User: What shape does this take?
Amino acid sequence: MNSRRYTMTSLSIVFLALTIMSVSAIGQNAYAAGGGMSLSADCSGSSCDISGTTDRNDQDVTVVVSSSNGIHIVDQLSASDGSFSTTINVSNLDDGTYKIAANQGASGKYSLNVSVDVSGGSSDSSASVSNQIASVEEEATSTTPSGGLTLSAGGIEGSTTIDVSGTTDRNGDITLKVTAPNGNVVSVSQISPSGGSFMTTIETGGALWSQDGMYTISAHQGAASNYQTSADVEIIDGHVIPEFGVIAAMILAVAIVSIIVVTAKTRLSLVPRY
Assistant: This one.
């Protein structure tokens, strides 16, 4: 009976941890990097086409048409695909200026409005507004200097070779230097790029690779900063240890927590009761 209770407790903790991670992932998806909202109104005759985009898909967009005399139209639109649209009829509205507001939740980032003029039951107004900004990835791309040197390094877990590759827009030789965790230089070599890319392997065996830890592989092709880069590879007992992926790290964390809880419960069950 006790064993079953401890097993259920362990499973509950695992489920809770996975749930928290899932909710975090969903939240990140619902509020994408950069993001924001856009809103536009394009009127012709007695109708106005209202449309917009948003990076949120967790709530509907509420569109409200109002004037100094109060609220005249309220509509709720789905934004499940990142966009929303509707058409309103202005033929029954009095002459004047009307505000068209779009709201999605309480955040001011998702609250925009535009104004249109109505006269004689018709309008030819057009207006648009947006607070959307480029995502982090797009901003990084736009500020990256033209040209440069890229480098990647890794290997199969337990192997004694490191696969090194990269790209460059220069034709000169590339110098590769490997530095041990203690700062000692393990190896220095040169490689010639071909067709804008290069590839080589580095052997990790021998006394120079005896120290466990992160080894830094540096590559440079001239003095310019964008032609100098590096990558780290972990070596244990002379063998390559790839970095944990996100999923592997999550599984490891959940497993460790479960083991700790089960061990603690088991110890408590061994304490004699008086």
